[in-house]
Design a protein that fits this description.
64 residues, mainly alpha, 81% helix, 0% strand, flat
Length: 64
């Protein structure tokens, strides 16, 4: 759950930065948000979740 909240906050910050710079319009952000909600309800959601979890585990195991 902590990884999901971190990813959501990161994406929110990136979306706000893009909107402030004019690179992302509000309508584009709404479409992306709706796509995420609809995608979470599909049968692909567990695959996407496991892929993101594996990626987060890989990144967290890297040492500088």
């Amino acid at each position: 759950m902590a990884v999901s909240i971190s990813v959501v906050l990161l994406l929110l910050v990136i979306a706000v930065i893009f909107m402030r710079n004019g690179a992302l319009k509000v309508s584009h952000a709404v479409v992306c948000m709706l796509l995420g909600f609809y995608l979470a309800g599909t049968s692909m959601a567990p695959t996407i979740h496991s892929g993101l979890t594996a990626t987060a585990d890989l990144v967290s195991s890297l040492r500088p």
